[in-house]
User: Which sequence fits this backbone?
């Protein structure tokens, strides 16, 4: 298949692209910078220059492909529901409109942070911009398209990760200790980036997955956030012990990470596995925390 990928040079994308190519697919990848273009070409992708705001480029590239994987997002955490969300909504509409009437798969990306608790793939995404993005994509199910959304675990981990664990580590070094909210018994679930990349490939290869389907990229068991804090504290060899902070104090310690640090995510994945045959083969979040490169 020829697959158009947005966000192909990002943390997840740079694993999705080689996963697709290694299994015989051709990749057309959006690149907004020279560095991104060079990295994608080095992986064997054909590059098209543009951004998520270049609607004509998005639509022409989608029409020229057998499937679309949409990973790109403007990660402005201070204004997450502002311009980044609006740009994403417009990009999803543009890509889905270009594929309408073809029955081709559009694979969008969402998150599990807002889902909360023990939730199945059939449950709503939990509100906010992620829910709206899913709703936009799924509205095209009746228009001759197969929109599928992969909800990623809060912590997509692995060697080279620059995400939430890195932020927590930086904060701990600055403060001299780690922290957790209240009892820290809220659960953080992860997924290894290579396992996540495999799921994206399996989805575009499986023509039997119906449009309007949400899938969960997550490990079967998470870690209590207090455990995450304790491991980071130990690995950094900090002199102060991890500290509990109240919900009111959380913003002072965690900053923009407050929402994520307090999230409780225990997603189910049985539907995902039944539909795709997806199996986890890489390290778990706990194993990566204990043996990974976060603390080198």
Assistant:
């Amino acid at each position: 298949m020829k697959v158009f990928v947005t966000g192909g040079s990002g943390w997840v994308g740079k694993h999705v692209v080689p996963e697709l190519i290694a299994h015989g697919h051709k990749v057309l990848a959006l690149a907004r910078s020279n560095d991104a273009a060079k990295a994608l070409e080095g992986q064997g992708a054909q590059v098209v220059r543009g951004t998520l705001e270049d609607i004509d480029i998005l639509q022409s590239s989608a029409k020229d492909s057998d499937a679309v994987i949409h990973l790109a997002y403007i990660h402005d955490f201070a204004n997450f529901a502002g311009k980044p969300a609006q740009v994403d909504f417009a990009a999803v509409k543009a890509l889905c409109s270009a594929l309408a009437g073809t029955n081709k798969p559009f694979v969008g990306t969402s998150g599990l942070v807002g889902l909360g608790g023990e939730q199945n793939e059939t449950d709503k995404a939990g509100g906010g911009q992620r829910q709206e993005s899913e709703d936009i994509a799924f509205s095209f199910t009746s228009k001759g398209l197969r929109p599928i959304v992969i909800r990623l675990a809060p912590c997509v981990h692995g060697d080279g990760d620059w995400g939430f664990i890195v932020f927590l580590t930086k904060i701990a070094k600055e403060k001299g200790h780690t922290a957790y909210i209240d009892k820290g018994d809220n659960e953080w679930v992860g997924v290894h980036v290579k396992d996540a990349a495999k799921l994206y490939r399996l989805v575009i290869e499986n023509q039997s997955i119906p449009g309007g389907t949400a899938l969960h990229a997550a490990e079967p068991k998470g870690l209590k956030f207090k455990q995450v804090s304790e491991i980071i504290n130990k690995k950094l060899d900090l002199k102060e012990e991890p500290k509990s902070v109240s919900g009111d104090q959380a913003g002072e310690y965690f900053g923009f990470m407050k929402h994520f640090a307090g999230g409780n995510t225990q997603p189910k994945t049985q539907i995902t596995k039944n539909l795709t045959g997806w199996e986890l083969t890489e390290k778990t979040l706990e194993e990566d925390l204990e043996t990974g490169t976060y603390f080198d």
